[in-house]
């Protein structure tokens, strides 16, 4: 559980000092830098950043002469010796802050993501613990950060544990490190910890502000709508803004101010709801022509974390013809969500509640709720986001359904304006007609299905005849489908791993989608095939083909188009017209 951390939204719009760059690091597989030999806390641990006091003083570490890693970044791709490493790495940076900034207002350390569990220490004092490798969090340094030099130490541990989220197994690389930006954030004594706006399904514009350090009204201005008003708490606005639409985004400049605190944001307004088996955006039935995306760089196989990474990935999605992206299987960085806003691409955001979760443990549920809140409070002003997904491929059970229902209910409390879903795992079957009756379907708004007909099970020849229905009268979205191919490997379309095989599989799946679309009398309202590009996955070990990559991408790990890219692109172009 998280100790000593807070959530602060709109961080990118605030006064900051970036701590990105080179940090000294110590690799600590036995965690000796925190625990003594008897298992108690090591009073002379690495977090103290000790220096010898005299020539005979025994200090068995030295950050100053230790190697360096770049932040933000994963350690796996920066040092070949850490390629498969799972354990603790200590990061240290000397921080100097101008006297005037130490003396006025409040200071927070903001960490975009640290995978998985991290502890923050300042000048030898332990300040916080955070669990969750993909969520942002902040730690207050007010009164602790001094004029002159300060030793900032962050312990990062990416070990897989049964009671973590995700748990022991996942089909992506367990990138360790400070994988997103680290900043000092400066705010006044009274500041807006959260300030958000969104549009409810009935067209009402609702929002909220949460203050820290005092009580005050907040001034809200939207010049494009001639709005200048005072708000507090959760509120509703009597305005009718031009709508943000897929492919035609309209973003309004929003100015928040409270005493000496000022935040400017770009916010779009759109409605999303379901009508039977249809997904409806701004009153228009909208079929989701999508693609799934991992948070991995366009080339190099590293953890993505910049505006440029987001721009390239979403440009590729648009070139494919997608109006929708599934940001799987965890919380992606804020840059890609904001870029989706700017480009008019609908988005699905997801928690890493994946295989093997301990659904019967209250501490696991508690951490899932913490990660859910960190995701929603950061992104609930983003019009692009239409789905909060609480899980992926969890096996049906009473405990699992209760766990995910609790998350869904909490998501609706935090944000009642978006659709809730979870990608369900279909059990392999030889049947052509598929009826979804998973009890989780009663909880979610949209039935999301991961199916791999023609790849893991079923015959390609029968895919086009397959039908998909549920007992819930709700939209069905194929959140995963497809198969693998090695870019540049060619042959007959019956030869597995060839681009021709993957392309033939996509043609068959597209025929099935055509027959099952809601506008063809079916219940399928969208798809986001798996996946935009090949990505690192340690379980994919076939030499000469996989070599540590999941090969289901429409692009190679370096962005080369496979034949299936053109197949899906052609279908999306036809469907759009």
Structural description of this entry:
Helix 4 runs parallel beside helix 5. Strand 6 and strand 7 form a beta hairpin. The chain is of the alpha/beta class. An 8-stranded parallel β-barrel has the order 21-22-23-24-25-27-29-30, surrounded by 4 helices. The chain is globular, with a radius of gyration of 24 Å.
Short description:
With 577 residues, the chain is an alpha/beta fold. The chain has helices spanning 99-103, 307-320, 334-343, 362-379, 398-414, 460-463, 499-516, 563-576; strands at 15-18, 21-28, 68-71, 88-97, 106-111, 117-122, 125-131, 137-140, 148-157, 182-187, 191-199, 205-212, 218-222, 227-231, 234-237, 252-258, 261-267, 272-275, 278-281, 284-285, 288-293, 324-327, 346-350, 385-392, 419-425, 433-436, 447-450, 467-470, 476-480, 524-527, 535-536, 549-550. The mean pLDDT is 96.
Radius of gyration: 24 Å
Class of secondary structure makeup: alpha/beta
Going across the major beta sheet, what is the strand order?
Answer: 21-22-23-24-25-27-29-30
Low-confidence stretches: none
List how many beta strands DSSP finds: 32
Count, helices: 8
The amount of beta strand, in percent, is: 25-35%
Task: Give the distance, in angstroms, between the N- and C-terminal Cα atoms.
Answer: 50 Å
User: Quick check: average pLDDT?
Assistant: 96
Helicity, in percent? 10-25%
Major β-sheet profile: 8 strands, parallel, barrel
Shape: globular
């Amino acid at each position: 559980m998280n100790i000593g951390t807070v959530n602060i939204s709109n961080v990118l719009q605030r006064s900051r000092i970036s701590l990105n760059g080179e940090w000294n690091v110590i690799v600590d597989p036995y965690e000796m830098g925190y625990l003594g030999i008897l298992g108690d806390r090591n009073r002379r641990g690495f977090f103290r950043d000790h220096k010898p006091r005299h020539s005979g003083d025994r200090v068995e570490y030295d950050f100053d002469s230790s190697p360096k890693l770049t932040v933000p970044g994963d350690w796996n791709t920066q040092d070949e010796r850490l390629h498969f490493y799972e354990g603790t790495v200590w990061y240290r940076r000397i921080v100097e802050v101008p006297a005037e900034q130490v003396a006025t207002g409040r200071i927070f350390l903001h960490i975009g993501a640290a995978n998985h569990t991290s502890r923050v220490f300042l000048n030898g004092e332990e300040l916080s613990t955070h669990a969750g490798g993909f969520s942002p969090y902040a730690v207050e340094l007010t009164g602790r950060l001094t004029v002159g030099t300060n030793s900032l130490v962050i312990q990062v541990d990416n070990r897989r544990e049964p009671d973590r989220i995700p748990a022991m197994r996942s089909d992506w690389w367990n990138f360790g490190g400070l994988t997103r930006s680290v900043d000092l954030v400066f705010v006044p004594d009274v500041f807006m910890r959260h300030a958000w706006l969104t549009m409810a399904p009935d067209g009402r514009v609702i929002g909220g502000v949460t203050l820290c350090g005092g009580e005050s009204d907040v001034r809200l201005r939207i010049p494009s709508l001639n709005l200048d008003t005072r708000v507090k708490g959760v509120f509703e606005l009597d305005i009718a803004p031009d709508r943000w639409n897929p492919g035609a985004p309209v973003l309004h400049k929003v100015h928040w101010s409270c005493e000496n605190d000022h935040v400017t944001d770009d916010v779009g307004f759109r409605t999303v709801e379901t009508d039977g088996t249809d997904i409806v955006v701004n009153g228009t039935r909208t079929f989701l022509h999508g693609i799934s995306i991992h948070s991995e760089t366009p080339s190099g196989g590293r953890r993505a974390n910049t505006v440029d990474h987001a721009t390239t990935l979403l440009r590729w999605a648009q070139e494919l013809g997608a109006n929708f992206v599934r940001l799987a299987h965890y919380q992606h960085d804020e840059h890609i969500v904001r870029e989706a806003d700017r480009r008019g691409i609908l988005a699905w955001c997801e928690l890493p509640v994946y295989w093997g979760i301990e659904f019967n443990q209250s501490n696991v549920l508690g951490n899932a709720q913490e990660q859910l809140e960190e995701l929603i409070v950061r992104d609930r002003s983003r019009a692009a986001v239409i789905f909060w997904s609480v899980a992926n491929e969890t096996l049906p059970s009473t405990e699992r359904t209760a766990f995910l229902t609790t998350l869904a209910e909490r998501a609706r409390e935090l944000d009642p304006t978006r659709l809730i879903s979870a990608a369900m795992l279909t059990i392999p079957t030889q049947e052509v007609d598929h009826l979804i009756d998973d009890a989780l379907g009663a909880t979610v708004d949209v039935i999301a299905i991961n199916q791999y007909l023609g790849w893991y099970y079923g015959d390609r020849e029968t895919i086009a005849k397959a039908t998909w229905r549920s007992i819930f009268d709700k939209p069905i979205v194929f959140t995963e489908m497809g198969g693998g191919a090695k870019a540049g490997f060619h042959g007959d379309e019956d030869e597995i791993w060839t681009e021709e095989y993957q392309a033939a599989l996509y043609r068959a799946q597209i025929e099935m989608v055509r027959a099952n679309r809601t506008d063809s009398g079916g219940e399928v309202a969208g798809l986001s095939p798996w996946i935009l590009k090949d990505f690192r996955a340690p379980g994919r070990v076939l030499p000469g083909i996989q070599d540590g990559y999941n090969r289901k991408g429409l692009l190679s790990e370096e962005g080369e188009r496979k034949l299936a890219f053109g197949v899906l692109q052609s279908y999306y172009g036809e469907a759009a017209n």
